[in-house]
Design brief:
Mean pLDDT: 83
Low-confidence stretches: 7-16
Helix content: 40-55%
Structural class: mainly alpha
Bound molecules: calcium ion
Shape: globular
Number of strands: 0
Radius of gyration: 17 Å
Strand content: under 5%
Length: about 130
């Protein structure tokens, strides 16, 4: 009986974990083309293999809420703010202008800006001031 209850608990836990992802995705005004990969290291993460990328970790730390604080960060350190990459610069939950696709992946260091090493270091120093 105890084993059965434990098993049920694990199943419920797994369902809850997997079910949270679409709910989190609603937070972002623009999710294409990266979809799951916006927050995860895999395109199609499963409950047991859903490692988060740098943006996903910041999103989690931010209480799984998309807001102006998160939009002002550059989670992946590529010189582009999360808000710019997602397509909602001010993080108010409404896509910028006629934006229908993310400009870049906020969790992957890509070529969406001219982030030099110096800029990244400066930004890391700035972030460190707020990450207390
Ligand atoms: Ca970035
Ligand atoms: Ca990026």
């Amino acid at each position: 009986m105890i084993v059965a209850a434990l098993g049920l608990g694990l199943v419920l836990l797994g369902v809850e974990t997997a079910g949270a992802t679409p709910q989190d995705m609603i937070e972002l005004p623009v999710t294409t083309p990266n979809l799951c990969a916006t927050c995860h290291v895999l395109d199609s993460p499963s409950a047991g293999d859903a490692a988060l990328n740098l943006f996903g970790l910041d999103f989690l730390e931010n209480g799984r809420v998309w807001d102006s604080d998160l939009a002002q960060l550059d989670s992946d350190g590529d010189g582009c703010l999360n808000g710019v990459e997602v397509g909602d610069s001010d993080g108010d939950g409404v896509a910028d202008g006629n934006v229908t696709e993310q400009a870049g992946n906020p969790g992957v260091r890509d070529n969406c800006g001219s982030g030099s090493l110096v800029d990244e270091r400066t930004w890391d120093a700035l972030k460190a001031m707020f990450d207390r």
